[in-house]
Amino acid sequence: MTQDQIRVKALLRWFATSARDLPWRCTSDPYAIWVSEIMLQQTQVKTVIPYWERWMKRFPGVEVLAATPMNDVLKLWEGLGYYSRARQLHKAAQIIAAEHAGVFPRDFNAVLALPGIGRYTAGAICSIAFNQPTPILDGNVIRVLTRVHGVGKSPKDKETNRHLWQLAGALVSIAGSCRTPARKVCSDFNQALMELGALVCTPRNPDCGKCPLRRNCHAHLNGRQHELPNLGPRPSVTLQRFAAFVIECDGHFLVRQRPDGVHNAQLWEFPNIEVTNPLTEREGGSTNTRSSKLDLLSGLSKECLGQSVRHLESFCTIKHTITRYRITIEVFRGELPRRCSMPGGAKWLRLVEMEKLPFPSAHRRILVRLHHGEHGMIEPKTGAN
Ligand code: SF4
Predict the structure, then answer these.
(1) 377 and 316 in contact (C-beta within 8 Å)?
(2) Dist. CA 252 → ligand 1 center (Å)
(3) pLDDT average per 10 residues of sequence, the chain (385 residues)
(4) pTM for the full model?
């Protein structure tokens, strides 16, 4: 037996006894697997589970999803972040309904042609749902393969990336040729690779003692676990600061929908504007006098809303992290005497009406505070936007 054949067998044996019991592992429905794969991009398993379960209940198949208005789709995705994933799922469902008679395609290239589906996701769907020997290469798999095979160059390097795809392809092909007809070996093998990267071959402290590949792993045998994969320096942290305005008139609040083509497109938010310096005294220890601070806020509100709002009061501060961005939103509350029209399609809505709309999670947290009448600092939240 070759080294790779030994690795494949060891990994399949390990997966048979160590796989987590995840809801999307109880089905071979390509639609359900596709939804899980898209949700799992950049998002932890424990966060995805309730979203996936809600989604499958509300949109049990392609046709239902394709016929649902985008607003409802985004509402169900609310809080999961990276909303372009939901938009692409919806778009792809409409294509499957229109061009594939509502049946999820089995052909790898047809799957790859759908919006929002790259080589990894197409490989995952075709292997997991249809047991095809299509390779996968995501962060977890890259970590396992670079360590096992001692690949020292950056996985972002074009040649190295091609080499890693070849390694993943060779392994799943070996799995596909295993004589275990009763089992879906390509499906199991690819999931086993991902599972090993998630549970055992972790970024910081890989648990080599429990790893089924330890006897055939370059990094373990040479003490190079912490050098591999060679990901280069981490991107530096970027600080961003916004002023947001909660403007009320006669029980209605001013909110706006983000336009197409921008980050968080079609989601709703409180009007806001990027600023360079802290605006509240507590945050920045500012020496501004109260009146000059009010002037500054009034000027910002004019820039953001098209008219200035006097007597704005600090409402809360939200700290938020999305990938390398550390975002602070200082929220100010004020009133206008009339529900005048505002630029950019902003609307005056009651709280109950806003509940039906999708908001990115930072603005959803402002809304929750508004409901409860709470002021003050809102603890940092990492991940979803
Ligand atoms: S032996 Fe260690 S480094 Fe190698 S694949 Fe297993 S967990 Fe990763």
Answers:
(1) yes
(2) 57
(3) 95 96 97 98 96 98 98 97 96 98 98 98 98 97 98 97 98 88 85 98 97 97 97 92 95 94 94 89 54 82 87 93 93 92 86 95 94 60 45
(4) 0.90
pLDDT score at 81 = 94
Nearest CA to ligand 1 atom 1: 214
User: How much is the pLDDT for 379?
Assistant: 46
36 and 85 in a single domain? The answer is yes
Query: What angle, 0 to 180 degrees and rounded to 10, lies between the N-to-C axes of helices 185-199 and 139-149?
Result: 90
Given this model, what pLDDT does residue 96 score? 98
SS3 content of the chain, % helix, strand, coil (to 5): 50, 15, 40
Q: Is residue 354 part of a domain?
A: yes
Strand 325-335 vs strand 238-249: parallel, antiparallel, or unpaired?
parallel
Nearest to 269 by CA among 288, 249, 254, 279: 254
State the greatest distance between any 2 C-alpha atoms of the chain, in Å, as a whole number.
81
Say what the pLDDT of residue 299 is: 87
Our CA angle for 140, 146, 150, nearest 5°, is 155
Quick one: 192 and 264 in the same domain?
no
> Is any ligand 1 atom within 6 A of the Cβ of residue 211?
yes
The verdict on 245 and 96 lying in the same domain is: no
Residue 335's domain comprises 238-382
**Shortest-distance atom of ligand 1 to CA 212:** 6
> Is residue 229 included in any domain, yes or no?
no
* CATH code: domain of residue 353: 3.90.79.10
Ligand 1 near 206 CB (within 6 A): yes
The Å distance, Cα 268 to ligand 1 centre, comes to 45
CA separation for the pair 38, 73 (Å, rounded)? 14
Residues 142 and 41 in one domain: yes
Looking at the structure, do residues 39 and 161 belong to the same domain, yes or no? yes
Indicate whether 170 and 295 sit together in one domain.
Answer: no
Residues annotated as catalytic (active site), given as ranges: 37
Residue 227 lies in a domain: no
pLDDT at position 76, please?
A: 98
Q: Are 381 and 319 in contact (CB under 8 A)?
A: yes
Give the CATH number of the domain where residue 65 resides.
1.10.340.30
Residue 233 lies in a domain: no
